[in-house]
Amino acid sequence: MRYISTRGQAPALGFEDVVLTGLASDGGLYVPETLPQFSAEELTAMAGESYAEIAFRVMKPFVDGAIDDETFRELVRETYATFSHDAVVPLNQLDSNHYLLELFHGPTLAFKDVALQLLGRLLDHFLAKRGERAVIMGATSGDTGSAAIEGCRACDHVDIFILHPHNRVSEVQRRQMTSVLAPNVFNVAIEGNFDDAQAMVKASFADQDFLDGTRLVAVNSINWARIMAQTVYYVAAGVALGAPARQVSFTVPSANFGNIFAGYLASRMGLPVRQLVIATNANDILHRTISSNDFSRQELKATLAPSMDIVVSSNFERLLFEAYGRDGQAIRELLEHFSREPAALADAPLARLRELFSSHSVDDETILEVIREAHQRTGEILDPHTATGYRAAEVCRTDTATPMITLATAHPAKFAEAVARAGFAGVDLPPHLHDLLEREERYSVLPAELAAVQDFVRENRRG
Ligand SMILES: Cc1ncc(COP(=O)(O)O)c(C=O)c1O
Ligand SMILES: N[C@@H](CCOP(=O)(O)O)C(=O)O
């Protein structure tokens, strides 16, 4: 399996190299040159298998021998043994045909653990084999950061630098990152927003001279391995509800678009998906693009679903690449236009996207209303991100005969302030985090300036 860039100008890479990198050298994102196809028999055979076994089977074609089967199977088994639920990502039936896919049973209580527990192990495996060290730089609006730190804190071969927007993540999110005092973990609170942090990480990939030759690796969903691992739970949930004999639909709280793009890939690999619903908070660029072809930036708004406070959505580029028939030049031109002024998609690609995708945007007031309403109807307390999905699923669903699976992307205790505003104070953190609010914290506050961040990384990295 080779991986090619969405901008068509960077060299193709194999799996090991694609995991050990970030952006492609032409500024694009890596995608597989061809997608594996799962036959109806293969999908049917996955139903009833453990999550780890489904994960092994779905990811094996992407790994393509870069790790021998026995070792990879063991890495995957270890990865999902860190989850607190036996089913890893249990399906919770809300009503006759609407399900929540609970993705928050990993160590840091958000869907990011599914991929980042694996990525940490893959990085250690490949770096140990090469006898190399690496620097990781990641940007977070709150959840990727803690999941990446948790996934890499024990990695012998990496130093990890996570940039979060100062005072714009929840207290639990911040403490989950800043209370990890391992010598290879560095938290930086940026005086800016997530987009500023992500732009600095991307700029660092574009010009790595500041690291004097040390390898720079991404943990954000620009790293292909993140998408690969997220594809698994779409397949697992689909086959559990009767695919491939029947279709399934998914609604995904979305921002950087890595999660729902993984669902799109699952559909391209043979899972019969009827609808993919994009749920956004008030930062609604994805919704505006799909619903009214308005691909333009607006000022970032701070919302009750802060992990989705993102304007420039990295992985949308991967979807555009597919919608434009894998034409790297068209993607370069479109994104160059978008970086300067409001843009629009061409008619044919937009029509292709609308065959599968629909979208809805949910403001803060509605998030609170949905948390209350869902609790009354189902007994569940949703986190504010999942609440956007719950409402979007109801609004966008085209038929009730197809099971609708809404992705529950975080545990409500991570967003205690928002959940309390909806009337549910005191949602408990799980036992392993019971003393989180008393733990010592360590982080540095820096201006949103590339040179300041790069100096910090250069001065603190250990190898
Ligand atoms: C809890 C939560 N829900 C939803 C999202 C959106 O996911 P994505 O960025 O993959 O679209 C994020 C982070 O991005 C998140 O942390
Ligand atoms: N919501 C994310 C933002 C980064 O997204 P990623 O999937 O590209 O890592 C976060 O919690 O940090």
Automatic annotation (TrEMBL):
<dbReference type="Pfam" id="PF14821">
    <property type="entry name" value="Thr_synth_N"/>
</dbReference>
<dbReference type="Pfam" id="PF00291">
    <property type="entry name" value="PALP"/>
</dbReference>
<dbReference type="InterPro" id="IPR000634">
    <property type="entry name" value="Ser/Thr_deHydtase_PyrdxlP-BS"/>
</dbReference>
<feature type="domain" description="Threonine synthase N-terminal">
    <location>
        <begin position="2"/>
        <end position="80"/>
    </location>
</feature>
<feature type="domain" description="Tryptophan synthase beta chain-like PALP">
    <location>
        <begin position="98"/>
        <end position="328"/>
    </location>
</feature>
<dbReference type="InterPro" id="IPR001926">
    <property type="entry name" value="TrpB-like_PALP"/>
</dbReference>
<comment type="similarity">
    <text>Belongs to the threonine synthase family.</text>
</comment>
<keyword id="KW-0456">Lyase</keyword>
<dbReference type="InterPro" id="IPR029144">
    <property type="entry name" value="Thr_synth_N"/>
</dbReference>
<dbReference type="InterPro" id="IPR004450">
    <property type="entry name" value="Thr_synthase-like"/>
</dbReference>
<keyword id="KW-0663">Pyridoxal phosphate</keyword>
<dbReference type="InterPro" id="IPR051166">
    <property type="entry name" value="Threonine_Synthase"/>
</dbReference>
<dbReference type="InterPro" id="IPR036052">
    <property type="entry name" value="TrpB-like_PALP_sf"/>
</dbReference>
<protein>
    <recommendedName>
        <fullName>Threonine synthase</fullName>
        <ecNumber>4.2.3.1</ecNumber>
    </recommendedName>
</protein>
<dbReference type="InterPro" id="IPR037158">
    <property type="entry name" value="Thr_synth_N_sf"/>
</dbReference>
<keyword id="KW-0791">Threonine biosynthesis</keyword>
<dbReference type="GO" id="GO:0004795">
    <property type="term" value="F:threonine synthase activity"/>
</dbReference>
<keyword id="KW-0028">Amino-acid biosynthesis</keyword>
<comment type="pathway">
    <text>Amino-acid biosynthesis; L-threonine biosynthesis; L-threonine from L-aspartate: step 5/5.</text>
</comment>
<dbReference type="Pfam" id="PF24857">
    <property type="entry name" value="THR4_C"/>
</dbReference>
